């Protein structure tokens, strides 16, 4: 119990305790969201992005399978009528699945055994342990769109399960992001390939390293340009998020 409390406390300090973080996040996401827009937070964790998006006046569907994180989300956002908390993971098809939990570092809990195996070999994950698991409900992006409407922006941060999440989407969204982790470079390229197919080549891309809330390129790139950009960051071991939007030159 103490280890679980410590893990959640670390996440709260990391994502809610840094002065000015939510203001910077709101400025950054203002390029994608405005008052009345709908946003999907897939892998909402403890709700830092959901809070920033509410600053912008956007409605938020916060999707999170971890029981401890769900308690935090409901405590922080459960009374906000502009936020809908969905207690589920997102995958290729609806059903049930097992979620591997890291008690001390819940931010890296994952549905993907392959992803866990690939990052375990990286020294940055040397002390991380996935020490328990829980069965969770699984929905799809298509189901979320059918239930809540099409989002103006969809963030996908599901620790190596991004390809599975995107496989449950059959239409291009106006804008989205997915996590990039250098030790799982090939998984990110597979996610990029799915996004490219969804958008029939109409997406343009950028990259934001770690939690800088800044774009690495001053131009939006095609898929080939994005891959070249990621290859620059891969040897540095710097994770971040790939951003995609339709029709941006």
Structure description:
The chain is α/β, with parallel strands linked by helices and 249 residues long. The protein has one domain (2-246): Vaccinia Virus protein VP39 (Rossmann fold, 3-Layer(aba) Sandwich), CATH 3.40.50. It has helices at residues 2-16, 21-29, 48-55, 67-77, 113-120, 141-148, 162-167, 185-199, 223-233; strands at 38-42, 59-63, 83-86, 89-90, 95-101, 132-139, 153-156, 175-180, 203-209, 240-246. The strands form two sheets. Strands 3-2-1-7-8-10-9 form a seven-stranded mixed sheet, with helices on both faces. Helix 7 (162-167) links the parallel strand 7 and strand 8. Helix 2 (21-29) packs across helix 3. The mean pLDDT is 88.
Amino- and carboxy-terminal Cα gap: 50 Å
Rg, Cα atoms, Å: 17 Å
What is the number of beta strands?
10
Q: From N to C, what is the helix and strand string?
A: HHEHEHEEEHEHEHEHEHE
The CATH topology label is: Rossmann fold
The structure class reads alpha/beta
Q: How much β-strand is present in the residues?
A: 15-25%
Number of domains: 1
The CATH C-level class name = Alpha Beta
